[in-house]
UniProtKB/TrEMBL annotation:
It comes from Sporomusa ovata. This is histidine kinase. InterPro entries: HATPase_C_sf, HATPase_dom, His_kinase_dom, HisK_dim/P_dom, HisK_dim/P_sf, PAS, PAS-assoc_C, PAS-like_dom_sf. Residues 202-266 form the PAS domain. It is an enzyme of class 2 (transferase).
């Protein structure tokens, strides 16, 4: 191989390095890449204009060659420490100054090139080896790291043999060829390093999104053995089980509501189903039913056969509850509008009828019918009570908000609640916390407390305990009513607050509906927890 061919190969390889690093700089806009671009441009200039066989070296080009080599190596080290996220150590500057001084003195004293170039090649070789080691320690495992780091280290080792072997006519072409091939390897390797770096950063970014999103993200592989390739950590919040609990579809089916399993099985295998979410009920680890919506898309092979399913699962329990609340309020509005329209019209004739019944009941000729007149008056009073409850459901009912202390209202009602409880052999435990005053309508709150405590007492058998408690939690004041009954049946719980829903023989079915309406007018929230051991109702008032 001729020397000219080898040098040309080296020049082309260095030009490729310039193009490679320029491309990376344009893509990533990093300062250390700009330094590396300048390194290889200076290398190209040195190769084209200053590289001469040792016997042809002149003093001025030698000074330029040595100076350019040291400056170039320092620039490479500066780019390398920038790549590693570190700062350039002053030791490199001191070393470069000392070694370059030795080389310049060697040229001035007329030493042989193999001698005056020793400090320079030592520094250049060290710069290459240092760059290779930094890339090795800073990059993630991959082909790019191995290729680039190895090529830089070998290039550094090769720099050390230059003063001793380049003077040999048979080795010089091979020396340039080895140098050029290593630069080709670096150009390819550094591209791979950045591709792998970008891929790893994207993987970390998407993993971060998957870990922090509230939706469950998954990938299910249909190929044997079938199972989940990935489930995001959000599944723990949804189900109470860790991601590793779900290996196959069978484990998922076990926590799906029996009525929804066929639906899930169909969506998990049918490719041609229309787009849209599928609503499912999930039994969480704590026994609660969680509403979820699931959507997946299929990955297919060249024949159209599904090989994997990717999708998301979202907890929509709060949305379902909100929809139920809205539906309940709509029903309340209908009843309230109806009540507002005719309740007053009914009350007037009832007042007249009651007055005449009282008048007739006092007459001596009707003395024998005193009991019947009493029954008629009781039924009229009961009818009037029902009308009053209807009016409480009115959406447009005027409320008189003023600053009141909920504890004072409870203390005022306590004797009445106690009397009702004693007649049913129920004990009452009143536990009042230190709470702020609230803007409320005291009459409506009295009715709310009366309805809740009456329901609680009627839900218990003799010997039960009714607990009434107030407390502050965050920015809310909470009224809690707890009984020791048998709990609210699920079919009643699902329709709680619906007008006319009652489990009592003589009930109107308006008590809880009125409670919901009162809470709505006070911007309060009614939260119910029920089970075989009893029911706890929280009325959550926002603090003023």
């Amino acid at each position: 191989m001729s020397l000219d061919t080898a040098i040309t190969t080296n020049i082309i390889a260095t030009a490729l390095m310039v193009l490679t690093y320029t491309y990376l700089f344009i893509q990533y806009k990093q300062g250390y890449l700009a330094k590396w671009v300048l390194v290889w441009i200076l290398q190209e200039i040195r190769l084209v204009f200053l590289d001469k066989p040792f016997g042809e070296q002149l003093i001025v080009p030698s000074f330029l060659y040595i100076g350019l080599s040291f400056a170039n190596s320092l620039l490479m080290i500066a780019g390398t420490v920038g790549f590693a996220g570190r700062r350039l150590s002053p030791k490199w500057l001191v070393t470069a100054l000392a070694f370059s001084t030795l080389s310049f003195l060697g040229i001035f004293w007329g030493l042989a090139p193999s001698l005056y170039m020793l400090p320079g090649v030592a520094f250049v070789g060290s710069a290459y080896i240092y760059t290779g080691l930094v890339i090795w320690n800073s990059c993630a495992h991959g082909m790019g790291k191995w290729l680039t780091a190895s090529a830089f280290i070998l290039l550094g080792v090769h720099a050390f043999d230059m003063p001793f072997l380049f003077s040999l006519s048979w080795f010089a072409p091979w020396g340039y060829l080895i140098d050029g091939l290593l630069r080709y390897a670096i150009a390819i390797g550094i591209i791979l390093v950045y591709f792998e770096k970008t891929r790893n950063e994207l993987e970390q970014y998407y993993q971060l999104l998957a870990r922090n999103t509230t939706d469950v993200i998954y990938r299910y592989n249909f190929n044997s053995p079938a199972g989940f390739d990935y489930i995001s950590p959000a599944v723990s919040h949804l189900t109470g089980y860790p991601p590793g609990h779900f290996r196959t579809l069978r484990q998922v089916m076990r926590i799906i509501h029996p009525d929804d399993r066929a639906k899930l099985k169909k969506t998990a295998t049918a490719v041609n189903l229309p787009d849209g979410f599928v609503t499912l009920r999930v039994k969480a680890r704590n026994g609660n039913i969680v509403w979820a919506e699931q959507k997946n898309s299929f990955v297919v092979d060249s024949t159209g056969r599904p090989i994997a399913a990717e999708g998301i699962v979202r907890d929509i329990t709060k949305r379902i509850q909100l929809e139920e609340d809205v539906s309940r309020l709509d029903r309340l509005n209908i009843v309230g509008q109806m009540a507002a329209n005719f309740a007053h019209e009914i009350r007037n004739p009832l007042t007249t009828v009651r007055g005449y019944l009282q008048l007739l009941g006092r007459k001596s000729e009707f003395y024998n019918y005193k009991e019947q007149f009493g029954l008629l008056l009781e039924e009229l009073d009961r009818t009037n009570h029902i009308i009053t409850e209807y009016l409480s459901l009115s959406k447009n009912k005027i409320v008189e908000m003023k600053k009141c202390n909920l504890n004072h209202i409870l203390l005022a009602l306590h004797p009445l609640v106690q009397a009702t409880a004693v007649s049913s052999q129920i004990t009452v435990d009143l536990n009042l916390g230190d709470i702020p005053e609230l803007y409320i309508d005291d009459k409506e709150i009295k009715q709310l407390i009366h309805n809740l405590t009456r329901n609680a007492i009627e839900a218990m058998t003799s010997g039960g305990k009714l607990e009434i408690k107030t407390l502050v939690s965050g920015n809310n004041t909470i009224l809690t009513v707890t009984d020791q009954g048998k709990g609210i049946p699920s079919h009643v719980m699902n329709n709680l607050g619906k007008p006319f829903l009652t489990t009592k023989e003589n009930g109107t079915g308006l008590g809880m509906a009125i409670c919901y309406r009162i809470c709505l007018r006070h911007n309060a929230k009614l939260d119910i927890n029920t089970g075989p051991a009893g029911t706890t109702i929280h009325v959550i008032f926002p603090n003023s």
